[in-house]
Design brief:
Elements: H1 27-34, E1 41-45, H2 50-56, E2 62-67, H3 70-85, H4 88-95, H5 103-110, H6 116-123, H7 126-131, H8 138-150, H9 157-164, H10 169-180, H11 183-192, H12 195-202, H13 216-228, H14 236-243, H15 257-265, E3 270-274, H16 277-283, E4 288-292, H17 302-314, E5 316-326, E6 341-343, H18 345-352, E7 362-368
Parallel strand pairs: 1-2, 1-4, 2-3, 4-5
Antiparallel strand pairs: 5-7, 6-7
Length: 373
């Protein structure tokens, strides 16, 4: 593994802290966007590991995961260890998707599969194991505060259960407008998900460097869409925000029973490196068919974004696809790269309309017109 190398695309992280203990990005639309075939080589931002593991379900030749934060790679390693060692119900217990009082025992069984660094990290925070590793990140702690301290001031547990209950779209809209969208919801949501509190409790303030305009208002519109146009009963992201675990029918792709054995069978095709995206692209001899780029362009200047795109093109095979999300900062292929990258706009818009990870303003899919290697 390489040592951590920081850049503008990798804002300085606290090495001992997990920022994201789950991937808050919908792997269902990611996999459709990338159209991964057997034999593909894929590059993936590691984050907490869920979507990197999801790529393995398509039987690629190799998946390379990178992250500048060693704690994020410890999160990925423990998931890989869990898939190797545990049954599917036990994986759900360890992640916190379901209730369990045996998480420390499950972790102890996984330890032998961890590197020394990952083992040292998780040995040092047994409370995170006990709570479920899916709640171990800064963002998840921020959402826990919302769920336990703010939400009870707005709605009862019964109302939350009603929100997450299966119902047809017209009934979801009626419920939201008449019973959920009260003044307290709008006011407290705007306060808690303001730039100030998100920077203080949920995300590094540096992540807002290139954000222009409001933060809470767009998120409020998008959560309304997720609660009405999409089905909350099958939405793992809404379920975790409001319940702190996943519902029976609301699991992210990598944690669904039907994907478990395929992912486990292809774990040996996964490798990971601790480094920035730029450093990896500048030094890797591999070429790639598909790129899961998370929302890394959110945190960098337009100039750095263009430079990264050029590095990605250089590391890509012809017709390779890039997929990435915009949260609050708009990023899509600049005209200066029109001869190298083709936006797949119709596909992007169609997939965004189904995106259960509702917080994003855009999902961008682009295709390499020619790789330079």
């Amino acid at each position: 593994m390489r040592g951590p190398m920081l850049s503008e695309a990798a804002p300085r992280a606290i090495p001992s802290a997990i920022r994201y203990a789950q991937c808050w990005e919908d792997a269902d639309i990611l996999l459709e966007a990338l159209n991964i075939q057997a034999g593909f080589t894929c590059l993936s931002i590691a984050s907490a590991g869920d979507n990197t593991l999801a790529l393995l379900s398509k039987r690629p030749r190799k998946v390379v995961a990178i992250d500048h934060n060693p704690a994020q790679l410890a999160a990925l390693e423990l998931r890989v260890a869990a898939f190797r060692e545990l049954t599917h119900p036990e994986v759900l217990a360890l992640t916190g998707s379901v209730q369990s009082d045996k998480r420390q025992e499950l972790y102890n069984r996984c330890r032998k599969h961890l590197s020394e660094g990952a083992r040292s990290y998780w040995d040092g925070c047994p409370e995170l194991i006990e709570a479920g590793i899916g709640s171990a990140g800064r963002l998840e702690n921020y959402l826990r505060i919302f769920r336990t301290r703010v939400l009870p001031l707005i709605h009862s547990r019964h109302h939350v259960d009603l929100l997450l209950a299966e119902k047809p779209s017209p009934e979801r809209l009626r419920f939201y407008e008449s019973e959920w969208n009260n003044l307290r919801w709008r006011v407290l949501f705007r306060i808690f998900f303001s730039r100030f509190l998100m920077g203080k409790l949920g995300r590094d303030p540096k992540f807002f460097r290139y954000v222009r305009g409001q933060v809470a208002e767009p998120l409020l519109r998008r959560i309304r869409y997720a609660m009405t146009e999409l089905d909350p009963a099958t939405n793992p992201y809404l379920y975790w925000i409001f319940k702190g675990q996943h519902g029976d029918g609301a699991l992210p792709f990598a944690l669904r029973a039907e994907n478990f054995e395929t992912i486990r069978a292809h774990l040996d095709r996964l490798e990971w490196h601790c480094c920035s995206l730029e450093n990896f692209l500048e030094n890797s001899a591999d070429t790639f068919d598909a790129f899961n780029l998370s929302d890394v362009f959110e945190y960098i200047s337009a100039e750095s974004y263009e430079r990264l795109l050029r590095l990605l093109v250089r590391a890509a095979k012809p017709n390779a696809r890039l997929a990435y999300w915009n949260l609050l900062v708009p990023r899509s292929r600049p005209e200066s790269l029109a001869s190298l990258l083709q936006p797949l706009k119709q596909l992007s818009d169609r997939l965004l309309a189904r995106d259960k990870a509702f917080m994003y303003s855009a999902f961008v899919v682009e295709e390499i017109l020619c790789g330079s290697r």
